[in-house]
Amino acid sequence: MKKRAPLNRTITLNEEEITVYKKKLVQIKAPVKVSDVKNKILKQPVEEVVRFLPEKFIDLLFIDPPYNLTKKFNRVSFKSMDLKEYEKWFEKWFAELMPLLKDNASVYICGDWKTSHTILNVGMKYLNVRNRITWEREKGRGAKRNWKNCSEDI
Question: Which residues contact 65 (CB under 8 A, 6 or more apart)?
Answer without folding.
Answer: 90, 109, 110, 111, 115, 119
